[in-house]
Specification:
Elements lengths: L1 E3 L16 E6 L16 E5 L2 H14 L3 E3 L2 H31 L8 H13 L9 H4 L2 H10 L4 H22 L2
Parallel strand pairs: 1-2, 3-4
Antiparallel strand pairs: 2-3
Helix pairs in contact: 5-6
Length: 176
């Protein structure tokens, strides 16, 4: 049996092997600096046939008790969502750190806020947990923040785009 661990590659890329094949995709970010608790990680599986899926599931269960069967299209969508939820969120931390550093402030001032945010994010629907000036429609604060970002134009554009997306989502929710 041949298997890959990618969230973004189809099972079909291995059809040419002419061997039983599958996917074992642990949905997690990995780094050498921090060990990962696999018990809390969903492992997504897919295989070329039923017998191979049974074998791949056995291997996956050695990693995690949370094994989920999803197809290639679902795995690609999950990977895309993970990039938004994790990678882009981390870049927002980079932006926040840059803004703070520019004004001689340390990133650690945000840690309690971030901890509370992640607690809420794990307990609530993401949209229900949304806070801030855009969801409140506070144009005075948004304008002030945009002025404060005049010398950080890329972050200003990002702030404007995200605020607009939040405002648009709020408006569309009202119409439903």
């Amino acid at each position: 049996v041949v298997a890959h661990t990618s969230g973004s590659l189809d099972l079909a890329i291995m059809h040419q092997t002419m061997r039983p094949h599958g996917v074992i995709y642990p949905l997690q970010t990995f780094s050498r600096a921090k060990p990962v608790n696999f018990d809390a990680i969903p492992v997504c599986t897919e295989a070329s046939d039923t017998n191979t899926l049974l074998l791949i599931d056995k291997v996956a269960h050695f990693l995690s008790p949370d094994v989920r069967h999803i197809n290639s299209a679902q795995r690609r969508q999950t990977h895309l969502a993970a990039v938004f939820a994790c990678n882009f969120t981390n870049f927002m931390y980079v932006a926040a750190a840059d803004i703070l550093k520019k004004h001689d402030l340390e990133f650690d001032i945000l840690r309690p806020l971030l901890n509370e945010f992640f607690t809420k994010a794990n307990l609530m629907d993401p949209w229900a947990a949304q806070t801030g000036p855009a969801i409140r429609g506070d144009q005075n604060i948004i304008s002030t923040h945009l002025e404060m970002l005049n010398d950080l134009n890329e972050y200003k554009q990002l702030y404007r785009l995200l605020s607009t997306l939040i405002e648009n989502r709020k408006e569309s929710e009202k119409q439903v």
